[in-house]
Amino acid sequence: MKNLEKVEKEALEKIEKAQDRNELESIRIHYFGRKSGILTILAGELPKLPNQEKRKVGPVFNKVKNSLQKALAEKSGNFQEAKSTNTQEPKNLEMGEDLPFDPTIPGRSQNIASSHPLTSVVDEVKEIFHYLGFSWVDGPEVELDLYNFQKLLIPKDHPSRDVQQTYYINDELLLRTHTSPMQVRYMETHQPPIRIISPGRAYRRDMPDATHLPDFLQIEGLLVDTETSMTDLMGSLDFFAKRMFGESSRVRFYGHNFPYTEPSIEIEVFHEKQGWIEILGAGMVHPEVLRGSGVDPEKYRGWAFGMGPNRLAMLKYGIDDIRALYSSDLRFLKQF
Ligand code: PHE
Questions:
Q1: Is residue 309 within 6 Å of ligand 1 at its C-beta?
Q2: With contact defined as beta carbons under 8 Å apart, do 298 and 77 qualify?
Q3: Which ligand 1 atom is the nearest neighbour of the CA of 180?
């Protein structure tokens, strides 16, 4: 009984002196901790006493217990008020002592997804051309023959229709074979000056192999203004290629032929293993395409390009099979 009273006195003093919640919490644990709290242990001893003793000690024990609990609660209330503006203070938690969690369990690893290489490439192209003042627009994948071919000077019997093997929906409707119809759509609805890129899907009846898929991405670019020329086109594309593949990358231009641009060019980038790889077609927009889209070719000139992000991604990340870009194999995807 004497000990109990001593414990009470000591404890009350400690509680009184406690400076903050942490200190109070360790006092609480010292006396009431589930395993080794002094009062917890004493409570365990009580039942072992002979009945007579029990009757005497029991009430004293309860009195001490209650008074300490009351003192703890009061003191804790004080801290609560004082620190109501700072509720983030960490609790002083001791192993096995009323922890809301088990700190010995290893943490769960977090699987943070990253961008798919195609998404990264498209974003990068957008960013580079954004820097040059181009905004981006979206266009329909189900397109009119009129826009996909005719307004781009590819009439029904034109031989280049063979090259662009088309998925037709009916006589007038098809899955676009390139993003170039967006040039026409945009010029019809907007006044120059125009600077846009239009990324999206295109479709051709190709057998899937290491370099072809029936469904792929393209990014169309179009600039229309009063003062612009082939030099601007080539300069911009050179700038683009260097940004994309590094300042030291080698780029070359080739004469080419597209019905809707005159003159037309192709660009190739040098790849360590694969040699020269074509990444885009481009040219000065044919005056008849301008006229057909409501832009006066006497007043304005335009240039356009179309590139394949699948190729760009393969070049940039050293992927040698285009089909890998559409696989859901985590061993592939986790590399990016
Ligand atoms: N549409 C062409 C293609 O699919 C690329 C291109 C776009 C060429 C714009 C010239 C101008 O290959």
A1: no
A2: no
A3: 1
**pLDDT of amino acid 10:** 85
| Nearest alpha carbon, ligand 1 atom 10 | 282
Element of type H or E holding 265: strand 261-271
| Token pair for 243 | 């940004």
Give the model confidence (pLDDT) of 160-186 as tens digits. 676 668 999 998 999 999 999 999 999
Q: Is the CB of 303 under 6 A from ligand 1?
A: no
Provide the pLDDT confidence category of residue 30 given band limits of 50, 70 and 90.
confident
Residue nearest to atom 6 of ligand 1 (CA): 306
Predicted TM-score (pTM) of the model is 0.68
Instruction: Indicate the DSSP class of residue 104.
Output: T
C-alpha 323 to ligand 1 mean position (Å): 22
Bridge partners (DSSP) of residue 36 are none
Q: What's the confidence (pLDDT) of residue 93?
A: 56
For ligand 1, mutation pick of 175, 178, 198 (most atoms within 8 Å of CB): 178
Ligand 1 contacts CB of residue 221 (under 6 A): no
CA–centroid distance, residue 325 to ligand 1 (Å): 22
Name which of 97, 129, 166, 83 is nearest 309 in CA terms: 129
Query: Residues 278-302: pLDDT tens digits?
Result: 899 999 999 999 999 999 999 999 9
pLDDT of residue 225: 97
**Mode of pairing for the β-strands spanning 135-136 and 194-203:** parallel
Q: How far apart, in Å, are the Cα atoms of 286 and each of 151, 160, 224, 282?
A: 11, 16, 12, 11
Q: How many CA atoms lie within 13 A of 96 on its CB side?
A: 5
